[in-house]
Amino acid sequence: MLDTHQTLETPESIDLELHLAGPVVRILAFGFDFGIRMVIQIIAGMILSAFDQIGLAIMMILAFSIEWFYPVFFEVFHQGQTPGKKTMGLTVIHDDGTPIGWSSSIIRNLLRFVDFLPVGYIFGLISMCSNDHFKRLGDFTAGTLVVYITPKQVTHPIPKDQPLHPPIPLTVDDQRAILNYAERLHNLSPERQRELANHLSPITQRKDNDNVVWVVRVANGLRGNP
Amino acid sequence: MKQQQFEAKYRYEWQDFESQLELLESKKTSDTDLTRFAKNYRKICYYLALAQERRYSPDIITRLNGIALRGHQQLYQHKSNVLHNMLTFIISGFPQQIRLHAKLIGFASALFYGPALIFGLLVYFTPSLMFSFQSPDQVADLVAMYNPANNAESAETRGSEQDLVMFGFYIRNNIGIGFQTFASGILFGLGSIFFLMFNGLALGGASGFLSSLEYNVPFYSFVITHGAFELTAITIAGAAGMKLGFSLLSPGQKSRKQALLDAGKESIQLVYGVIFFLLIAAFIEAFWSSSSTITSTIKFAVGGSLWVLVFTYFYFGGRGAQKNNSHMEKR
Fold first, then answer.
1. Is the pLDDT reported for residue A175 higher than 50?
2. Which residue of chain A has the CA closest to B256?
3. Where are the alpha helices (DSSP H) in chain B?
4. Is the CB of B168 less than 8 angstroms away from the CB of A180?
5. Phi, psi (5° rounding) for residue B213?
6. Is the link from the previous residue into A118 a cis peptide, with omega within 30 of 0?
7. How many other C-beta atoms can be found within 10 angstroms of the C-beta atom of residue B170?
C-alpha cells in the first residue's frame, strides 16, 4: 500500500509505470484551485456589479459553472490538469492510462459532492486512504487515477572513469543498483556516497573514497562507456 | 548490447518521437506528418521493453517510460464531435436511455410523487401540519409569493431584467439540486432517496397548503409548465443516483468496482438529459411561468401540452434510430 508505483500493461504488452498521487499533494492542489476559484469569483463579482441586474444574473450562472465545472473544463481541455494539479505536477487519466474525456470528468467532479460529505472532504479522504490507488469515490465511479507527470528529465550521466570488470558475478539486480547509485551520485553528499559504498568493503577490500571510485568504475563497465 | 551502445544507436529516434509528441500535445497537428506516429510508438514500446528486460539504468527507463506513456495517451484518446453527439443524444439517445431505465425511473417517481400526494392531502385537510415541515417564515414567504393580491402589484414592478436574475438563480439552484440528487446516490442509493422524498414533501406541502388557502390557480398555473421538465428531471436524477448505489448493493456477476464503473457510464447519460431538461425548465420558469401578462388558462393549456409532449418524446423518441441500428447489425 505504501508503494505508489503501479504498472499498467498496454495493448503493446509493455508495462508502463505510473506514479500515483497521494492525499497530501492532492489536497494542496485542491487548495490552490480553491484560491483561484475565489479570485475569479471576486474579480467577476466586482466587474459584474457595475451591470446591476444583468450582472447579477451572469454572476449566478458563473458561480454555478465554477462550482460544478471548473475542474471539468481544465481536465478536458488541458490534458487532465487543473491549474492546481499543474502546479503540483499531477494529472488525471483513465485507469487504462488514456486521457480523461467529458463523461469521466463530469462524473468524477459531480461526485465531489459526496466526497465532500459530511464536511471538508472526509468521505473522499477516507476513501483515498482505504485503497491502494488513492481513489476517492468520484475516481471509483469514473474509473480515473491521479498520477504524477514524469518531470522533464535532467539527466546526470554517470561520471566517466575507466571501466572495471567486477571481481564476482553480479546479478541483474546488483547491476541495476550499481547503475542507479552512479546516476544518483550528484544528489548525495560525499559522506553519504562513502557510507553507501562502504557496504561493499568486504568485496572490494577498500575504504571510503576508493570504494566510491570502484563503484563508479564498475558502473562504467556495466554501461559500456567507450 | 551495452547500455551506452543502445543509447547511442537509438537516441535520435527517441528525440524524433519526443518532438512529434510535443507537436501533438500543443494541438498544432494540421501541418504535422503523422503517418509514422503509430509505427514510432510501437518502436518506443519495444525499446522500453528491451531496456526493462536488460536492466538498464533507471534514468533511461524513466525516460522511455515517460515518452511511451505520452505516446499511449496520444494514440488511445477519443476525439469526438461534441456538437454532433449532443444533437443525436437529444434526438434519440436520451429517450432511449429513459426507456432502458423505465422501471428505475418509475420507482424514483413513486418516491417523489408518493410523499408529495400523501403529504399534500394531509396538509390540505390540516394545514397546520405544514409548520412541522417548514418554519413559519418559510411558509409566510411561500404564501406571499402566490398571493393573487401581491401578484397584481409585483407584475408592474417586475421587469425583464429581474426575469434574467431569476433565470440565473434557477440554473444555479435547480441544476445544483439535480446534481446533488444524482451524486448522493452512491451512498447505497440513500442520498437520492432522501432528496427525492424531501423534494416531494416540499412540493406536496406547498400545493396542499396553498390549495387550502384557495391560491390554487396562481400556484398550479405557475408550476405546471416548467414542472413538465423540472419535476421529471428530478426523478431522472434520482433514478441515475440510485443506479450507482444499487450497483454496489447488488453487483450481480461483476465485482463491485466494475459494477460501479459500468453504472457510472450509463447513469451519466441520464445526467446529461437532466441538465438538458433543467436548462429548459429554468428558462420557462423565469420567462414564462412567472409572467403575469399570460392568463392562467393559456398557462394550463401550454403546460398540459408540454407534459404530453415530454411523455411522447420519451415514448417515441429515437425508436427509428434503434430500428436502423438493429437493421445494420443484422446485415
1. yes
2. A140
3. 3-25, 37-53, 58-75, 82-88, 94-100, 102-125, 130-133, 136-146, 148-157, 160-170, 176-183, 190-212, 216-249, 256-284, 296-316, 319-330
4. no
5. -90, 0
6. yes
7. 23
DSSP β-ladder status, A5-9 and A15-19: antiparallel
Answer whether A223's CB lies under 8 Å from B55's CB: no
Which residue of chain B is at minimal alpha-carbon distance from A155? B59
Asked if B179 lies within 8 A of A113 by C-beta distance, the reply is: yes
Is the pLDDT assigned to residue B28 strictly greater than 80? no
- For residues A115 and A127, the answer to whether their CB atoms sit within 8 Å is yes
* Cα separation, B46 vs B34, whole angstroms: 19
**A14/B271 CB distance under 8 A:** no
Question: What is the CA angle B144-B150-B154, rounded to 5?
Answer: 115
Q: Which residue has cell 408550476?
A: B223
The percent of residues above 90 in pLDDT, for chain B, comes to 29
Q: A8 to chain B nearest CA, in Å? A: 10
End-to-end CA, chain B: 54
Residue B155 has a pLDDT of 53
Handedness of CA B314, B320, B323, B329 (dihedral sign): negative
Cα B267 to chain centroid, rounded: 8
Distance CA B251, CA B245 (A): 10
Closest-CA residue of B relative to A172 is B55
The answer to whether residue B242 scores a pLDDT higher than 90 is yes
Contact between B176 and A111 using a beta-carbon 8 Å cutoff: no
Q: Does B169 touch chain A (CB under 8 A)?
A: yes
User: Tens of pLDDT along A104-150?
Assistant: 899 999 998 888 888 888 888 888 888 888 898 889 999 898 988 87
In the numeric block, the cell 450481480 is attached to: B252
Domain edges within chain B? 3-75, 82-327
CB contact under 8 A, B78 and A179: no
Between B58, B168, B182, which is nearest A183 by CB? Answer: B58
For B7, residues 6+ apart whose C-beta sits below 8 A from its C-beta are: B60
> Please, is A165 exposed, middle or buried when counting C-beta atoms within 10 Å of its C-beta (0-12, 13-18, 19+)?
exposed
Q: What's the mean pLDDT when you consider all of chain B?
A: 84
| Residue A45 pLDDT > 80 | yes
* Half-sphere exposure for A20 (CA within 13 Å, toward CB): 23
Q: Nearest Cα to B116, choosing from B207, B41, B39?
A: B207
Task: Count interface pairs A-B at CB distance under 8 A.
Answer: 154
* Chain B residues within 8 A of A68 when measuring between CB atoms: 175-176, 179
Q: Is the pTM of this model over 0.90?
A: no
Q: Nearest-CA residue of chain A relative to B169?
A: A60
The CA-based angle A155-A159-A160, given to 5 degrees, is: 125
ipTM: 0.79
Residues B305/B299, Cβ–Cβ less than 8 Å: no
